[in-house]
Amino acid sequence: MSSSRARIAIIGGGPAGLTLGLLLHKRGIPFIIFELRQKPTDEQLAKPSGMLDLHEESGLAAIRECGLYDQFLMLTGDCAEAQKVSDMDGNILYTDEGELSERPEISRHALTKLLSSHLPAEAVKWGHKLLSATSSTTPSGTETELDFGPHGKQAYDLVVGADGAWSQVRSLLTDVKPHYSGTQSITATVRQVTAKYPRLAALVGRGSFSALGLRHGVMSQRGPEDSARIYLFLTTADERFAASSGLDGGTAAAAKDLLLDDDTLLGRWGPALKELVAVACDEESADNPGAAVDIKPLYTLPIGTTWEHRAGATLIGDAAHLMCPWAGEGVNLAMWDSLLLASAISKAYEAAGQAAASFQGALDPLMKDFEVEMVARTKEKAEETNSNGQMLFGEDGAKAFAEFFLQVYGHLVGAPDRGDVQQRPDDI
């Protein structure tokens, strides 16, 4: 098959898929992105969402290669790079204003809009659920047939699985599946937090806030609409905790009593953090009447997950190396994958065009090298993530996390008020 017949499908329209698509578009290489979700409206993309901090060697490098760095910077004002660490009683053990951080924060929605707005409308097929992927050998190479149910079946020379934790494309390459991490996550949002709840706004600060204790966590990130997005991380061996606890299907407001009264959850936490959780639950239900509480188990792939290389298919992002968010590496690794894979595809496409040779044949050795490098690179980050999780959700995670920041930053700044003196919630 020549480069003119290189049929490329990217499964998944998250940061990995959109970044890869945009990099290929800039190089004039045809592709199609298939995304399960319907196309989000501008109104939906303006709503508060999780914040993502992009790192210089990975996420930011991809943004620069896309030619979007200046536009990206204009979207990073909602969440400062500041950090605060608190124990479960609200005592502030560490705080900074992000002076030494070089990891600007952008909302997930803003990043989606930034990337997708620079793609041709026809490049993304929204509302397409991949039911199965089947590879076969043809006289010209390996062909993968994708079954989109009512949208029909289509064949491609290269299929890139950017389809997340429960990737359909992964089943082409390996039978390894994610396993439960031992942590449940609950998410709620408080809009206009400064005006409505100035004390809570002061508690969580302008950036990221982490309260830790008894193997649980209450964390916050500031975001659009002067919001505070609150995350509860609960350590439990019960993968089906949402159902067994009775929280599944109920509202966030209905969940707060169980969360705050049960001593195995947040019942032993102090009043400042309990107030933050109660307000977040009530505000979430007020904004979304009748909506079920956003609770989910967190999953991870085994560290160093690999697969036997197969021509015509590969994985990037969470589909390849799903991990918990304890090091902020997920989106960065995904965009780094896209950056490196786009380079390999571009080289193969150019080589096939010049030699009138097979695109797949030119790509295959490059893709093998890409996969080997990706596994090695992401294994290191997965080990770091696992280590961070053990630190954060130990019996005294707050003390361990504060000491971590002081070791990393304290000696560089030399500021005595960056954690040497505890600050109680009443002092805020």
Automatic annotation (TrEMBL):
The lineage of its organism: Eukaryota, Fungi, Dikarya, Ascomycota, Pezizomycotina. Keywords: FAD, Flavoprotein, Monooxygenase, Oxidoreductase. GO terms for molecular function: FAD binding; monooxygenase activity. The keyword Signal does not apply. It comes from the Eukaryota. It comes from Tolypocladium capitatum. Residues 7-209, 315-353 form the FAD-binding domain. This is Tetracycline resistance protein from transposon. The keyword Ion transport does not apply. Pfam families: FAD_binding_3 (PF01494). InterPro entries: FAD-bd, FAD/NAD-bd_sf.
